[in-house]
Write a structure and sequence with these properties.
Radius of gyration: 17 Å
Order of helices and strands: EHEHEHEHHEHHHEHHEHEH
Helix content: 40-55%
Distance between the termini: 11 Å
Number of helices: 12
Structural class: alpha/beta
Shape: globular
Bound molecules: phosphoenolpyruvate
Strand order of the largest sheet: 1-2-3-4-5-6-7-8
Length: 250
């Protein structure tokens, strides 16, 4: 049986003082879980987060990284700049980046490759919009995101990747996919991976659900057979709520 990977995506929230408060509150609340706990914090909180979580079961992630090692890429961060701080995970291709910052399957792949090369574990986000779902194109979109976004990823590299299925219509909206909708979509995504990498590799792959997951709905979602964890936005900003998600599945 796999454990679950529960990752908090703080987005552009929490200054250093607030980050310290949240992490300090969180540490004792999640210390007994057998699930993997990750907090993906703003770049400016990374040092503090790594320092405060040292010796605990909380892992630290960033929310993006560039595909180049260095150069004239104003505003970007290289993967090795993250690993040298002690960062272990990085979110890649979040729908907010795809929507507002022109992220494409191609750039997602480039960032993922570079992150892997530096020794980071990418949490690669995929998911359909409401329009795509209602137009009957959900499978087509998910299939394209996996096929294009994982084009040169080897089976060995896949072992270090976490996938987050995040229907765009459920992110930050308070509308959660039902347990069955999330499970069915993830089963479909797993099938696409199985077609390329084989059933064993696809079964071993961690695929999270993300989209308004919180302390109230986490137990149901995490009990589903295909759901290997959660990527949590809003509810990860309150220690008790995020801890409740982490502890919702034993
Ligand atoms: C997210 O940021 O990936 C997310 C799922 O946000 P929320 O939980 O707020 O919907």
């Amino acid at each position: 049986m796999k454990n679950k990977i529960i990752a908090g995506n703080w987005k552009m929230n929490k200054n250093r003082v607030e980050a310290e408060q949240l992490i300090t509150q969180l540490i004792p609340l999640v210390k007994d879980t057998s699930n993997t706990v990750v907090i993906c914090v703003p770049y400016t909180d990374l040092c503090k987060a790594v320092k405060l979580t040292k010796g605990t079961n909380i892992h630290v992630g960033a929310q993006n990284c560039h595909w180049k090692e260095s150069g004239a890429y104003t505003g970007e961060i290289a993967p090795s700049m993250l690993t040298e701080l002690g960062v272990e995970y990085v979110v890649i291709g979040h729908s907010e980046r795809r929507t507002y910052f022109g992220e494409t399957d191609e750039t997602v792949l480039a960032r993922t490759k570079a992150a892997l090369q530096a020794g980071l574990k990418p949490i690669v986000c995929i998911g359909e919009t409401l329009e795509e779902r209602n137009g009957g194109n959900m499978e087509k979109v998910l299939s394209r995101q996996v096929t294009e976004g994982f084009k040169d990823i080897s089976a060995d590299e896949l072992k270090n990747i976490v996938v987050a299925y995040e229907p765009v219509w459920a992110i930050g909206t308070g509308v959660t996919a039902t347990d069955e909708q999330a499970n069915d979509a993830i089963a479909y995504v797993r099938g696409v991976f199985a077609a390329k990498y084989g059933k064993e590799a696809a079964d071993a792959l961690y695929i999270q659900y993300g989209g308004s997951m919180n302390d109230k709905n986490a137990a149901g979602l995490l009990a589903m057979s295909q759901i290997d964890g959660g990527l949590i936005g809003g509810a990860s900003l309150v220690a008790e709520k995020f801890a409740a998600v982490v502890n919702a599945h034993k």
